[in-house]
Write a sequence for this structure.
């Protein structure tokens, strides 16, 4: 078998294994059409660099890192459609039918408002930890730092998120409920 | 009284696309995309640029301890570092990009940035220069362009990388120590005495003789849980009190 065949086989396996996750990653952050662009660009980069992709549990975070840069580059350069920028800014805008597990619409709004109030890196770190369920070593690969550093950053991001959420929640509670809870 | 779930739990539940709802690679669109990609010449694909940035070296709460060891901590052993700093000119003040070599030789990893269309060669007019890896003052690896016949490292007052097998084993053990302790303290609150015992146990397991464990108090109700700092030049693991990672 030639090295070209090996390369293609490796890529096909990678694509089969991780298409779902990359597609979900993009859809969690963008509308479906822009998400499709991000998925395609991410796997194009993976096709070019298939021999550089780490094995096993680190392949997926490597792909997340590429997807993150693809989104970020579109955001920085302004070359992507205006719609993409608008939607990137609106963290909370998701199809509500896809959120069956949260308590209520108000709860979801609080979550997204709290996320939107955070710094972009903290926001992405939280989403990767809680939605993509990456481990500390996997997060470290995405953020290009040590697992120790990422553990500290995640701890702080959790704390900031809880604070932001608590503030928003207390502001949104009716006066009577606030009195009851005190 | 019903206690409301923790905000982080509520964040988790607000996941807008659950794993079961994600798109299968067996859909016609996904299959078509795959076929389009594998028919693309890889060399023609532009990669997203990595932003040039100054990395913040503060890894753990005790900044002063970490700063002394920063290069060592992040760059690991010099022949296969976790990150390398690629410089655009043979100068320590030149623009630089930091990247993960993913097991590649540092020179080969930085060479990618000099390809036509890449960060250091956006218009494709610059031929790929000869690149040299040197040890930066922090202990990290820096890769510089330089003319043939010139010892770039010496010219910059830097050392050449070495790959002493004993040092490499030691570095790997230190790396494993960092990962093991970080994972222990990541999501659970480990108290002072357990943390000290755990650190000693890991040092023993990894054969890191000559290392010591110290603690920086006080552990209080506001900061009852252990985090960890590594002072590698002085071979010291320091247990540091922090707030509870699982409390609001």
């Amino acid at each position: 078998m030639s090295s070209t065949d090996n390369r293609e086989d490796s890529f096909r396996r990678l694509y089969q294994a991780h298409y779902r996750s990359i597609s979900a990653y993009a859809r969690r952050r963008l509308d479906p059409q822009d998400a499709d662009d991000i998925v395609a660009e991410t796997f194009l980069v993976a096709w070019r660099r298939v021999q550089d992709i780490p094995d096993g549990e680190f392949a997926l975070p490597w792909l997340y890192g590429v997807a993150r840069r693809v989104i970020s580059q579109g955001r920085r350069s302004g070359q992507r459609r205006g719609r993409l920028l608008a939607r990137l800014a609106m963290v909370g805008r998701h199809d509500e039918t896809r959120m069956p597990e949260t308590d209520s619409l108000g709860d979801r709004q609080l979550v997204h408002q709290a996320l939107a109030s955070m710094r972009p890196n903290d926001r992405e770190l939280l989403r990767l930890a809680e939605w993509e369920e990456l481990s500390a070593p996997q997060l470290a690969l995405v953020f290009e730092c040590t697992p120790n550093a990422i553990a500290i950053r995640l701890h702080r991001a959790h704390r900031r998120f809880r604070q932001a959420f608590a503030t928003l929640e207390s502001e949104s509670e009716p006066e009577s409920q606030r009195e009851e809870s005190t | 009284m019903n206690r409301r779930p923790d905000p982080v739990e509520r964040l988790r539940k607000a996941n807008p696309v659950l794993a079961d709802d994600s798109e299968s690679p067996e859909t016609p669109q996904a299959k078509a995309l795959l076929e389009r990609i594998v028919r693309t010449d890889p060399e023609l694909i532009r990669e997203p640029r990595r932003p040039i940035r100054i990395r913040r070296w503060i890894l753990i709460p005790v900044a002063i301890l970490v700063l002394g060891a920063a290069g060592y901590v992040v760059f690991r052993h010099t022949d296969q570092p976790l990150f390398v700093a690629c410089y655009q000119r043979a100068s320590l003040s030149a623009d630089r990009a930091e990247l993960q070599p993913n097991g590649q030789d540092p020179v080969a990893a930085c060479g990618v940035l000099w390809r036509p269309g890449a960060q250091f060669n956006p218009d494709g007019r610059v031929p790929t220069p000869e690149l040299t890896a040197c040890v930066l003052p922090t202990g990290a690896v820096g890769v510089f362009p330089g003319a043939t016949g010139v010892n770039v490292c010496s010219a910059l007052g830097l050392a050449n990388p070495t790959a002493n097998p004993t040092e490499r084993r030691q570095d790997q053990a230190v790396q494993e120590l960092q990962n093991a302790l970080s994972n222990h303290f990541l999501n659970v609150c480990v108290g002072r005495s357990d943390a000290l015992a755990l650190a000693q146990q890991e040092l023993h397991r990894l054969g890191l003789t000559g290392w010591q464990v110290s603690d920086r108090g006080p552990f209080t109700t506001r900061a009852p849980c252990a985090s960890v700092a590594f002072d590698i030049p002085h071979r010291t693991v320091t247990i540091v009190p922090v707030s509870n990672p699982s409390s609001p």
Summary: Confidence is low (pLDDT under 50) at residues 76-103 of chain A. The first helix of chain A runs from residue 3 to 29. Chain A touches chain B through 71 residues (CB under 8 Å).
